[in-house]
Structures are given as C-alpha cells and as structure tokens.
Design brief:
Non-ribosomal Peptide Synthetase Peptidyl Carrier Protein, Chain A; two-stranded antiparallel sheet; globular
Length: 93
C-alpha cells in the first residue's frame, strides 16, 4: 500500500513492494522447487511446516537462488531462513 508523505512523494512498504519483479521471480523459483503454484506462495509460509521441504530441495533452492541472483549465501545461513519472507528479504536486500 503506498504511503503519501507531506511533500507529495509516495513509496511502498514491505519487502515485495520494493521490487516486485524480483520477488515474483523468487516466488516462482520456490514454487518450482517445492512443487506449488507460484500464486500459492505467501511471505509467511514456512519451508518445513508448510512445504515439508527436504534437505535436497532446500539445497537445490539455495543453489538456484544463488545462481540467479549472484549471491554466495552459505547453506547453514540459508537454513536459518525459515519463511518465504525471510528469503525475499535476503535476496532483495
């Protein structure tokens, strides 16, 4: 939702609003790896609880995201990201 500042400048808040094209790409990659429709991927979704993601899927997701977004995030750090929103924040930030 856009916020209006006193001097007429508007901007959006939230991880996804800042760069929706990249966020959609990340969601599409997540959906592909976990076998869900991209429209079903929500920021609050948890990889283990909501997607029952296994070690191999998590490793594949990390490798794909690192390659597509030129990051070098370690697997141990990636495993600390429990939700889609935390992954978005890491790869969009």
């Amino acid at each position: 939702m856009p916020l209006e500042l006193n001097f007429g400048t508007s901007f959006t808040t939230g991880v996804c609003d800042l760069d929706t094209e990249k966020a959609q790409k990340i969601r599409a990659i997540i959906a592909e790896v976990v076998g869900f429709d991209p429209k079903e991927i929500q920021d609050e979704d948890r990889f283990i609880m909501d997607y029952s993601i296994a070690y191999a899927e998590r490793k594949a997701l990390l490798e794909r995201l690192n390659a597509d977004f030129s990051k070098d995030l370690e697997f141990s750090a990636f495993c600390q990201l429990e939700t889609v929103g935390s992954v978005l924040g890491t790869y969009l930030g």
